[in-house]
Design brief:
Length: about 280
C-alpha cells in the first residue's frame, strides 16, 4: 500500500495539472484541495471527480487538486493540518472536523439515512450480548469512523477487553472475525451486507445494534478558505448541475444534519482514547 502511494498521488496531481493546462489563459486564484476517503485506493476516483473538478475550477478560477486518503487516520491528519479546502466527509470525520478544526458543513452527502452501527460475530459463536466480550479481542475501525470506532467504543464503555485490533477497512474487520483473530467487530449494517457476502466461507450474525441513527456525512469547507470565498463556493456548488452533484455524492439543496449528538459522542470517546493501545484495554 505505502509503496504504491506516490504513484497514485502523482496520478491525482496529474489530473489537476491537466485541468490547469486547459485553463492556461487564466491566472488561478489560489488552490482548492478536495479531500475524500478512498478505502480501496483505486484510481477510478479520478474519473468520478473529473467533471465536478472542472466545473468548480472554471466557476471559481481556482486550481483544483484531488487528494484522497486511504483510511480515516490519514484523513484526520489532513484535517488537523487544515490541508483540505473541501472535504467529502463521512459522519465520524465530519464530527471531528466541525468540533475541533473549524470546518463548516455546507451540504449533506447522499447516503443511507437510517445507518446504524452494529457488532458482528460469526454465526456459530454462542455469545448473546456485549457483556460477554469482556476479556476478549475485538476488531474496530480506524479513528474517525462513526460506525466502526466512535459508536462501538461508546457502547463498550465500562468493559475491559483483552485487545483491540484496528482494521484499516470494514472488510478487513470482518475478515479478522472470519479468521478467528477477533471474536467480534464493529461495522455498519450496510458494510455487513456489502462485504459479508464476499466472505462466502463465513456466515455472520448481528450481536448488537446501536439504537441511534448515524447522521449523513457532509461536504465541509475549511478554515483556510477566506469567508467571502466560502460563501461564493457554496453558491457555485448549490447551482451545480444535478448530474455533477450526484456523481460526487452530495445534495445541493439538502438540509445539513444535526451533529450535536455525534460530536458529544466523539468527545466522550476521546476521553478514553489514550487507553486503546494497552493490554488489557480498560474502557473507563
Amino acid at each position: 500500500m505505502f509503496l504504491r502511494f506516490p504513484r497514485r498521488l502523482f496520478l491525482f496531481n496529474l489530473l489537476g495539472l491537466t485541468f490547469a493546462a486547459c485553463q492556461s489563459t487564466k491566472e488561478f486564484e489560489g488552490t482548492l484541495t478536495i479531500g475524500v476517503i478512498n478505502y480501496g485506493g483505486g484510481e477510478q476516483i479520478i474519473n468520478q471527480y473529473a467533471k465536478f473538478n472542472s466545473y468548480l475550477g472554471e466557476k471559481t478560477n481556482a486550481y483544483i487538486q484531488l487528494e484522497p486518503a486511504f483510511n480515516e487516520n490519514r484523513a484526520v491528519e489532513r484535517l488537523e493540518a487544515r490541508a483540505w479546502s473541501l472535504v467529502f466527509a463521512p459522519p465520524g470525520l465530519a464530527a471531528i472536523a466541525i468540533a475541533h478544526y473549524q470546518y463548516v458543513p455546507l451540504f449533506p452527502l447522499i447516503g443511507i439515512s437510517n445507518l446504524r452501527s452494529i457488532f458482528v460475530v460469526r454465526k456459530d459463536n454462542p455469545i448473546s450480548d456485549l457483556k460477554q466480550l469482556e476479556g476478549k479481542i475485538v476488531a474496530l475501525g480506524q479513528l474517525g469512523s462513526a460506525t466502526g470506532y466512535y459508536f462501538p467504543l461508546y457502547n463498550l464503555y465500562g468493559t475491559t477487553l483483552a485487545q483491540i485490533l484496528f482494521a484499516p477497512t470494514p472488510k478487513a474487520a470482518l475478515e479478522l472475525v472470519a479468521e478467528g483473530k477477533a471474536i467480534a467487530c464493529a461495522v455498519s449494517e450496510a458494510e455487513l451486507s456489502l462485504y459479508g457476502s464476499q466472505l462466502d466461507r463465513t456466515e455472520f450474525r448481528i450481536l448488537f445494534k446501536d439504537p441511534h441513527y448515524v447522521p449523513l456525512g457532509v461536504v465541509l469547507i475549511g478554515p483556510s478558505v477566506e469567508r467571502n470565498r466560502q460563501e461564493f463556493i457554496r453558491k457555485v456548488m448549490s447551482n451545480s448541475p444535478s448530474s455533477l452533484a450526484q456523481e460526487v455524492g452530495y445534495v445541493p439543496n439538502g438540509q445539513v444534519p444535526d451533529y450535536k449528538y455525534m460530536i458529544s459522542l466523539v468527545d466522550r470517546v476521546n476521553l478514553i482514547s489514550s487507553k486503546l493501545q494497552k493490554k488489557p484495554v480498560r474502557l473507563f
